[in-house]
Structures are given as structure tokens and as C-alpha cells.
Amino acid sequence: MRRVGVLVLGVVLLAAAVSWRPVVGPRIVKFPGGLNQTTHYQGTVVLSVNQSTDLPLAQALTLPLEIDRHVQSVTSGAHVAVLHETITAHLGPETVTQNNVYALNRRTMENVAGTAAYTIAPTSTLDRAGSYYLTYPMGVPTTGAGYRAWKPETGTTYPVSSTALPESSIDGTPVVGLTGQLPQTPVDSAETAALAAQGFPTQMTGAQFETVLHADGTDLAAATASLAGVLTTAELATLRTALSQPVPLHYVAYGHGTLAVNPTSGAIVALTGLVDSIGVRPGLVGLAPALAVLTRHSVNPQVASLLGLLHTLAAGPAQPVYELRYSQTPASVTASAAFARSQAHKIRLATVTIPFAIGIAGLLVTAAGVFLVLRRRPTAQVHDMGQILPTDRRAAA
């Protein structure tokens, strides 16, 4: 009976080895709890406009930039981890702080919907479900990867895909490349409020708007006067009134960058060549009466020229406001590589080493059990011979 028990134990161990990865692995291989990390970046900030008026500077101003990004676990449940991110940017003499809270699936690393998560302000609870930000999933492929990354300033996602890197490992940690590009995308209300708090205006006066047009080669006063022979008195009054009103400003975010990610853990090891920009363009909603007047006379070359310029300002490329250019510091890359390497080791231990060891043990125990069950019992044969031998001797006597 003991021999059969050894065989059963071996079969159980083999079954455990086979089922470990699909059954046990997902229960123990997760985003780590108790995370408390700070990442450092350095670069420059290029300011292209007067911060109080949003009018273009004659020459862009370049300042040193340092960014500290602190991520700490708030809660780590069985399936969802909630993390608090604090970004502190030192732009020359000015310091700007941004707070975000993320809720992510501890197995897939995707952001999930949750009331605990917010961007910039606690009242800004956007649904980030299905996107990535703090980390990428385990098992990032060398090529062909396609993900959606979250952009806090716009409340939207943008595509991130595989790219070649000059190195296949950093500080002994294997890495693959991901690159993403965000086109000019309107910022959300929380970012608009944050920009206003930094001193950037939400509108410009009619006089300031006239200055913008002049910078683009249009003398608004002269153009309006030249239209006196084309427009009626009422139309001319409507045009002048509309052009004298404050013009709302719409901010956009755009940029690009490259990530080095550990393919086993999905942890970000290095961020290089990031360009993170804010631009602005005037809104023409308040100019609707003026545009209606001009559109009625669009066959006139002067009117057509002014219309074209207004539409270009509203729909064309945004005027750069500032541009952050930065990369992760070498010391911070080393720390991130060590963390990613540790996570990858734990994942391999849980998904490869342990089931492999259980499988080897199962094979050995099963082999031993089979040997014991099939082995004949020589002690019983000796006992039988002992029962026969004395009788034979008596018969011989």
C-alpha cells in the first residue's frame, strides 16, 4: 500500500507542475504591493511666449529643468492596486507640482475605472480603463507591441509601439523599446485650470489679438479700413465690435518619447528624449458674427485673405507655449534597472523555477513509485520454500 502511495504522490506532483503556471501563477505574479519609488529626470524647458499675455517672445527663453516623480502605493487589493503619483517640476526658479491617483489591474497592469483615481484634481475622475501609464504588462514582445498610453494633461490615450534601441540591456537588465507620439490634442479642464494657476491666461484682449494678427503679417486696423468700401455700415460695425471682444484661448498638449522596458516584468527602466509640449490657439466662437459678415464677401481678395488667416489661427498648428525636453538621470536609470531585474527574477521564480522543480520532483517520485509497485517480493518466495523443504526431506528418509 505504501508503494502505491508513493506513485500517487508522484502523479500529484506532476499534475501540480502542469497546472502551476495557468492556475497558481496568476494568483501570485502581480504588481508589487507597498511600492515607494522616486524617479529623477533632467533637461531644459523652452518658453516661447510671454507667460502673462501668451504673446510670442522675440526670442525663446531656455531654462534648466529637473523633475522628481514619486509613486507610492495607497492600497493593494487582491486584484486592484491604487497608487498616488506626485510630479514636482523645477522650471528654472519656478516649481510646479502635479498630483495624480491611478487604479490598475495588478495582473494585466492596465488602468481600471474607479472613483479613487483622478488626474491633477480630485474632481477630475476620468475613465482610463484599458490604457497604461505607470508600467506596461508582463511579457512585452521584442517587436510588434502596440499599447495605448494615458496622457494626464489631455485625459486621452495615444498609441505606443515597438521601436529599436541601441542596447538590448541596461545595467544587466534586458530591455525592449517602446515609442509613442501624441499629436496636438486639447487639454482637459483640470489642465486648463492648472495652467491658469501658473499664470497663463485663458483669453486675450482684442488689442492682444490684433498684435497676434500683426505678427502674422496682417494689419487689422488697415484691413478693416480697406473693407469699408466692400461692407455695409452695419456689417463694418459688426466686424469691428466682434474683433474688439476678448478672444478665448485653447491649449493643446503634444510630444513624443522613447521608453526602455523590461520585457519580463513590463517595468519602465529608462525614459529618453522625451519632448512634452503645450501650445495655444485662439478660439473663434466669439468671432462668429464677424466671420458671417466676411463669409458673405469672401469673393473679395482682401476679405478672403483675412478669412484665411483667421481660420489658420483657429485650426492650424498651435503657437508653442513651452516645451519640456528631458531624459531620466543615469543614477535613476540604474535604480529602475535594479527594480525591474528584481521583479523579473521573482516572476521567473514563480512561473518557471518553482513549477520546474515540482515537475522534476514529480518525475523522480513517480519513477520510484513505479519501481516499487512492479518490484517482485523475494522474501515471500523464501518462506514458501521453507514450508516445502522439510516434507521433502522426510520423504527421502
What does this molecule look like?
The chain has 397 residues and is α+β, with helices and mostly antiparallel strands. The chain has two domains: 2-22 and 358-396, no CATH class; 31-328, no CATH class. The protein contains nine helices and 14 strands. Strands 1, 2, 3, 4, 5, 6, 7, 10, 11, 12, 13 and 14 form a twelve-stranded antiparallel β-sheet that branches. Strand 2 and strand 3 form a beta hairpin.
Structural class: alpha+beta
What is the helix fraction of residues, given as a range?
A: 25-40%
Q: How is the biggest beta sheet arranged?
A: 12 strands, antiparallel
Ends distance: 43 Å
The Rg value, from CA coordinates, equals 35 Å
- The figure for the number of domains is 2
Range of strand content: 25-35%
Which shape, going by the Cα principal axes?
Answer: elongated
Number of strand elements: 14
Which helices and strands, and how do they pair?
Elements lengths: L1 H27 L7 E14 L6 E21 L3 E12 L2 E12 L12 E2 L26 E6 L4 E8 L5 E2 L2 E2 L1 E11 L2 H9 L5 E2 L1 H10 L4 H7 L6 H11 L3 E15 L6 E15 L5 H9 L4 H15 L3 E10 L1 H45 L3 H19 L1
Antiparallel strand pairs: 1-2, 1-14, 2-3, 3-4, 4-5, 6-7, 7-10, 8-9, 10-12, 11-12, 12-13, 13-14
Helix pairs in contact: 1-8, 5-6
Which features characterize this protein?
397 residues; alpha+beta; 2 domains; twelve-stranded antiparallel beta sheet; two-stranded antiparallel ribbon; elongated
Write a compact overview of the structure shown.
This protein is α+β, with helices and mostly antiparallel strands and 397 residues long. It contains 9 helices and 14 strands.
